[in-house]
Hints:
By secondary structure, the protein is mainly α. Among the domains are: about 1-125; about 355-495, no CATH class. It has 19 helices and 2 strands. Strands 1-2 form a two-stranded antiparallel sheet. The longest helix is centred in the first third of the chain and has 32 residues, at about 155-185. This is NADH dehydrogenase.
Amino acid sequence: MLTDWNALLITMLIAPATFALVAAVSRPGWRRVVARTGALVAASGFLTAATLAVQVGRGLPVTAAAGGFGLAVDRLAAVLLLLVFGVSPVVQAFAIRYLAGDRRAAWFTAGASLLTSASAGLVTATTLIGLAISWTVAGVALCLLLSMYWHLPAARDGVRRTATAFVIGDLALWVAVVLATAHWGLLDLRALNTAELDGPLVPLIACLVVIAALSRSAQWPFHRWLPATLAAPTPVSALLHAGVVNAGGILLVRLAPLVSGDVARVLTIAAGAATLTYGAVVMLVKADVKGALANSTMAQMGFMILTCGLGLWAATIFHLVAHGFYKATLFLSSGSAIAQRRRASARPPAQAMSRRRQILTALTASALPALALYVAAQAISLPPGQHTAEQALLIFAWATGAAVTWGWLTRRRGIAAGVAAVTLLFAAAIAYLGLITTVGHFLAPSLPTSTAPAALAWSVAAAVSAVLAGLAVLRRMPDTAIHRAIYARAISTGYIAPSSPTHLTGARS
């Protein structure tokens, strides 16, 4: 029997997909109406997701079935739905003015609506086949969005690279689905934690799933497609970097019992750590805003995949949700950031700090966030828990706090600046740890059991932190032959060569 909650869940998924069809066949003169309606449909989905989150927070999961396609919303799905329907209406509303007068505006609305529906299906599907269908449809929707400006050679190159990586990943996922279904029957994802998953096919299935996740999240060796998509309009980039690349982490979390074996774990950790380092290096030398943001996303996804390999599932979810909203904001405000940078460059340059003062500022910027996090942890009295993410993210939080403190102290000097930095750091540390503790406890009933040894997590975190610290030191080095050689190497490594001769001969009509 179809209850109100069932109907609400089904409508939330079907409405954007239905409107995608309407937008695709709409007349050119209806572009603005179509764009506004698409944003309203997505916004209504956010209200529905918030209502469902309250329902599941009370311990009442919502399930439904639509044509044999099983759906369910638990606490994990509720949080991810808030991300999907939180980003989509904001980006579509931004696109109303950004694409005003563009004859492809309705195309964007159709693609964004289809992507929204597929992403919602990805986080709520209860069967492995349903998850794979949503996964593939989301990839197709993204490729359609990237092809908005197909007449541009760079856009065609980006679509080709993206489609190639996605086809490889999707084939891997569908082979895994066929093998798993043939071996265990129709798998219910809600019962994976208690299912008997054994046999010689398990490592192969796990590696295939990891390959699919790496391809969608632009991880090594599939890392070249993401920087090649910069010709896409800003709203498309926002949807891509805030949502689509997160799908790899979502896939690994939802199929955690399948990918927790040693072989899959090593593959995930190695790819995540390598991509994190690569993306961070290239990001530091990129001169263009979108290029730096693209490689920043790659590095952030490397961190997310790394936490998956370490079995830190709460850290994965907290990071991908925070990164999704944060990166959407950065892309949508990139134009304002460029204008602000131009105004700043017109001002007289600030007085350079002495070498001694630089060292003192760096030590202070490193020590203050560490002290703030330690005191905040003692004040909150963090309880031990299997799914709390604070330990996994403390190093990441410290690095972020150190970078922010460094920027503040280089612009503001004196005792007042130091007191303000200390006050803000303590307040931010308490709010940060309190938030991730609350989120971790809220998600705990819906997250898979972590099997990664604590020693492995800390060893990998320490190694990655050492590499990133070395990069930070290298960036501040004086201009030497070694510094210039590494800088040039990083630039050439991050260069995306054209994949077709149309870049040289011109675009075809």
